[in-house]
Design brief:
This protein folds into two domains: about 280 residues, Aminopeptidase, CATH 3.40.630.10; about 110 residues, Alpha-Beta Plaits, CATH 3.30.70.360. It has about 425 residues and is an alpha+beta fold. Helix 3 crosses helix 12 and helix 10 packs across helix 12. It is built from 13 helices and 16 strands. It is globular, with a radius of gyration of 23 Å. The N and C termini lie far apart (about 45 Å). About 35% of the residues lie in helices and about 20% in strands. The strands form three sheets. Strands 1, 2, 3, 4, 5, 6, 14, 15 and 16 form a nine-stranded mixed beta sheet that branches. The longest helix is centred in the C-terminal third of the chain and has 21 residues. It binds glyoxylic acid and manganese (II) ion (2 copies). One manganese (II) ion binds next to loops. One manganese (II) ion (MN) binds next to loops.
Length: about 425
């Protein structure tokens, strides 16, 4: 028996695999899976998910930022709202599980809650968020920040590659479903693949997240002078690409010296690439993460100062933009305890994990208590087409989520 074949589960809902596979075919950039904020593929994915939410007995709404919301109303207009969800957008050439797994698990759990006839003390919203990855604007959590009303003017002003700002994209988006009612959030729970190797190494399907690392995303714009590759002597060049290349290695070298810190240059573009032209302009991104805010902030300051120094020494101009500086988020101990207690009824113990990846829970944590359920994934792999979590593990997550949602008490968390 393989690591992903769990004994003891008689039946696994076939919709887990079929829904995730179907969502995996909806892409802006075939043949890989790519869905970005408010893109045509994201709209198509939402239509599909809206149908599943409807069939599960949820009332479907959509907000202006393209978050799709399936609501189970408790009948008391004054009651608070417990939210549960994850995201439908993806990175470029993504796998099928990062985000959609939590949406699918949430819908199936809500369906179970509804079918049980349990009387909830609060409204329940299953949310498919529109932007957790930040691929289009490099600033992330646009969907979840809109959902909690924390999208600032600075973020609204960021432009995508076509020059469209976040604010303009939101203003131009026409929801397909009625707007959601006003809500008072009293908690948030998110299921997500672990995106790391710990659960697999421990032979356990599920774990609970205690904190999510903070992240800074920077965009570095380097300006040099384009010129003829054959006639400009090496000592007379202002080559933006060689300057950027020095910075890419600097990021790696400096990050390696700080315990627990990770920093990545994941995107680099030349303004007018041609094999016989010296590079006149380059822009690249830097993604910096650490569990401690102070460490991440100090590192970012030192790194940006060194980048400026190195590029100026090459007579290059530099501008540094910071589309995102998201602090580390702590999950609520009480909710984590409740979730872990349920997990422990299904497996021998419940590991507590810190997430190096960002999640919509970070945005929700600004306004309410949050907790997260991690699901084991193969080889700890994500942001790759091969990412995989078994239907058995996801089914277990649905069981745990359904129990958590049913047991949630507004008296304790209102
Ligand atoms: C999202 O997966 C992120 O952590 O960048
Ligand atoms: Mn994700
Ligand atoms: Mn991701």
């Amino acid at each position: 028996m393989g690591l992903f074949d769990l004994p003891g589960k008689l039946s696994v809902d076939p919709r887990i695999s079929s829904w995730l596979a179907e969502l995996g075919t909806i892409t802006d950039e075939p043949p890989g899976l790519t869905r970005t904020f408010l893109s045509p593929a994201l709209e198509r994915a939402k239509q599909l998910v809206a149908g599943w939410m409807h069939d599960a007995g949820l009332r479907v709404h959509e907000d202006q930022a393209g978050n799709l919301i399936g609501r189970l109303d408790c009948g008391n207009a004054a009651a608070g709202t417990l939210a549960c969800g994850s995201h439908l957008d993806s990175v470029r050439n993504a796998g099928n599980f990062d985000g959609p797994m939590g949406v699918v698990a949430g819908i199936l759990a809500a369906e179970r809650v509804r079918a049980s006839g349990a009387v909830l003390p609060c409204h329940l919203e299953i949310v498919a968020f529109a932007d957790e990855e930040g691929v289009r604007f490099q600033t992330t959590y646009l969907g979840s920040r809109y959902y909690v009303d924390h999208l600032g003017e600075a973020e609204r002003a960021f432009a995508d590659a076509a020059g469209i700002t976040v604010g303009a994209a939101i203003a131009a988006h026409v929801p397909n479903f009625p707007p959601p009612p006003a809500r008072h959030l009293i908690g948030y729970v998110e299921a997500h693949i672990e995106q790391g190797p710990i659960l697999e190494a421990e032979g356990l399907a599920l774990g609970v997240v205690t904190a999510i690392a903070g992240q800074t995303r920077a965009r570095i714009l380097v300006a040099g002078k384009a010129g003829h590759a054959g006639t400009t002597p090496m000592g007379m060049r202002r080559d933006a690409l060689t300057g950027a290349a020095e910075c890419v290695l600097l990021v790696e070298n400096m990050a390696r010296r700080v315990d627990g810190l990770v920093a990545t240059v994941g995107q680099l573009e030349m303004s007018t690439p041609a094999s016989n032209v010296i590079s006149g302009g380059v822009q690249f991104t830097i993604d910096i993460r650490h569990a401690e805010n102070a460490t991440r902030q100090r590192f970012s300051r030192e790194l940006f100062a060194e980048i400026e120094k190195r590029l100026h020494a090459r007579d290059l101009e530099v501008r540094i933009e910071i589309p995102l500086a998201a602090p580390a988020a702590k999950c609520a101990p009480k909710l984590c305890g409740q979730l872990a207690e349920i997990v422990e009824r299904h497996q021998v113990r419940c590991p507590r994990l810190v997430s190096g990846a960002g999640h919509d829970a970070v945005a929700l944590a600004e306004v309410t208590d949050v907790t997260m359920l991690f699901v084991r994934c193969r080889d700890g792999l994500s942001h790759h087409p091969d990412e995989f979590a078994s239907a058995e593990d996801i089914a277990l997550a649905v069981d745990v989520l359904a129990e958590f949602l049913t047991g949630f008490s507004s008296a304790a968390h209102g």
